[in-house]
Amino acid sequence: MIALLLIIAVQALTSVDNCDTQSLFKVYNLTMSPSAPVANQNATLYTDYEVFEEIKTGTATYTCTLNGIPVLTQKYDICTQTVCPITVGLHNDTSIIQVPSITGTLLCKIKWFDDTNRQLLCIQTKIVEPLNLFAKWF
């Protein structure tokens, strides 16, 4: 009798969304490349948005949960995350993301606020990775 080990790589399912349409910046386009990120490799988040008033200072917050359990909460000066002042007009930002090796659902939110705590933008990324590998003996 011959045993055959079948290994199937399962791709991650992803989504990138504007999580608050009432933010001060108008988000036009959110794209992640590759659309099915690979664990332990980089993915690129492309964000196109419009700014209607100049922003000189503020904060950027990053929160992530894995299967509903908080795994990351970080807060930065917004000027360390983008060029300040953030000028009026159209902007195209690119962010490199290291995709972790996970099993389950990783939900992350990026929120920017001005110095009076008005929300500038909210971006939510969701990566669902069933199992990195599935093995079955025949």
As a percent range, the share of helical residues equals under 10%
Beta percentage is over 45%
How many strands, what sense, and barrel or not for the largest sheet? 5 strands, antiparallel
Query: What spatial order of strands do you see in the largest sheet?
Result: 2-9-8-5-6
**Domain unit count:** 1
Instruction: Give me the number of helical elements.
Output: 0
Total beta strand runs:
10
Residue-averaged pLDDT: 86
Our measurement of the CA-to-CA distance between the termini, rounded to an integer number of angstroms, reads 10 Å
CATH topology: Immunoglobulin-like
Radius of gyration: 18 Å
Question: pLDDT below 50 for ≥5 consecutive residues: which ranges?
Answer: 1-10, 131-138
Helix/strand order: EEEEEEEEEE
The CATH first-level class comes to: Mainly Beta
Backbone structural class: mainly beta
Topology record:
Layout: E1 5-9, E2 13-18, E3 26-33, E4 42-51, E5 58-66, E6 69-77, E7 89-98, E8 104-114, E9 119-129, E10 133-137
Antiparallel strand pairs: 1-10, 2-9, 3-4, 4-7, 5-6, 5-8, 8-9
